[in-house]
């Protein structure tokens, strides 16, 4: 029996129930939410492996839910919308969703996409765990060691502050995952993030300057606009 738990967040109860029936028949455990606030509450309390999320919902829309989830989690997100325009799809994907389907949709195609996202997530999590188990993490020629607290490029040491090192290690130990400024601040500074706080942006800018200087201009730290920062594997 499959123990994977999936959350469906959609205020259209008929669609949510239909999706739940198909997923349950596939052996998944399914939770449902009718608005964004309820969805975030379930995500905080339960072990969710995938989210199916409607864009237009009361209390908090799907895009806001994606932003909140991406501040803390790398859970795969499949967005649903009645809007078929390319810009709507682009907005959903750039906000942090992993896939996007337009209503009405073929239920069997939705199941196929769910399985694909779960396979990708399992593979990526295995890669991340393998990276985190290493003493030295290497990405695109940059090596970082938490044990010796060093960062190297071709045996050349890069001088970073303790905070810059911690930010870099966080991103490199979770390749491909997007961290919001809020998540970075709370994990590195161990303090509550204030909305007007630009501390992370300043440190990221200085860190980028140092890395790009040693990497021949290569941009290791990527900005995902409106979401946060990441380092691709």
From TrEMBL:
It holds the Pfam family Trans_reg_C. PROSITE patterns: OMPR_PHOB, RESPONSE_REGULATORY. Residues 5-118 form the Response regulatory domain. Residues 134-233 form the OmpR/PhoB-type domain. The modification 4-aspartylphosphate is found at residue 54. Residues 134-233 bind DNA. Keywords: DNA-binding, Phosphoprotein, Transcription, Transcription regulation, Two-component regulatory system. InterPro entries: CheY-like_superfamily, OmpR/PhoB-type_DNA-bd, Sig_transdc_resp-reg_C-effctor, Sig_transdc_resp-reg_receiver, WalR-like, WH-like_DNA-bd_sf. This is Response regulator transcription factor. It comes from Paenibacillus gansuensis.
